[in-house]
């Protein structure tokens, strides 16, 4: 079974889907359910009930997936009087994807298995200002370092970069402070050099893409990233929200102080410049308070369930930032229960890999 382009082609103008597309869709449904079930696995009857497929169809699909090495038996369920059910589980090591975080001053790449576990990583300093060609070459090198030379090619490579950028076309926008990047077709260039599907998204979207707890995928949440810049990723209705022009999440350039210090975006008093100035002078409590004020604006606007914090600045003092943001949200809460504040459990590179894996499991990312 080819899980490439043939599995995902749509039908004609009448709205139907051809057989390869339907077959690929059903297999993706089963794989996604088995992924969420973890090592314990699920029985064929449970898979049939959750997908709406007939038991016979599930058995045929499962047999194909077992033959491909994507699914294996996970033992038997306890007997309830009849023959014990055989459980099926995903085989995480059967395939993999690569995620790359391109930051302004460093690059990190990870190889993840089908369960999202990191099995290899590499990275180091990066000069984003060296220009698109130099950075593209650095990405190609890091992807090669984490890929498995003895195994199949990656299902895809997810690349998370500073915005603005166009997620749909894979073209970079005018990144603040780096005008040479505007209009560079990064996704196309990397796909040509790597020979595998490449997905390009903003670093903050990658940050919100992959909560490890499957139950939290449906939550309305915001991911706040504090590193060399300040941005947000939004998960609304269970999906990453990018906006009509891929411009959602420019959290750092909301004005918190009229006529405040100049920001590199051209404005004044932006949350980003205020927060990073506080970090630079070592006042992390003030930086957390500023981050919290911006987060409170976002929570009031979108009524999100949870606020996740990440990035190297947060990682250096996680308790300070979690408590600082939590205090501001509690003080400014308009609802009886303020949004939950916590740390993002996965990094941006891992989230980028998750976005690359999403089509394999029939998800949009």
Map the helices and strands:
Layout: H1 19-37, E1 42-43, H2 44-51, H3 55-67, E2 71-76, E3 86-90, E4 96-102, E5 106-113, E6 118-125, H4 132-146, E7 157-161, E8 165-166, E9 171-172, H5 186-194, E10 198-202, H6 203-209, E11 221-226, E12 230-236, E13 239-241, H7 271-280, H8 284-302, E14 306-310, H9 312-316, H10 318-332, E15 340-343, H11 348-357
Parallel strand pairs: 4-7, 7-10, 11-14, 14-15
Antiparallel strand pairs: 1-3, 2-3, 4-5, 5-6, 8-9, 11-12, 12-13
Please supply descriptive tags for the structure shown above:
disordered N terminus, alpha/beta, five-stranded mixed β-sheet, globular, 365 residues
Task: Give a summary of the structure in a few sentences.
The chain has 365 residues and is an alpha/beta fold. It has helices at residues 19-37, 44-51, 55-67, 132-146, 186-194, 203-209, 271-280, 284-302, 312-316, 318-332, 348-357, and strands at residues 42-43, 71-76, 86-90, 96-102, 106-113, 118-125, 157-161, 165-166, 171-172, 198-202, 221-226, 230-236, 239-241, 306-310, 340-343.
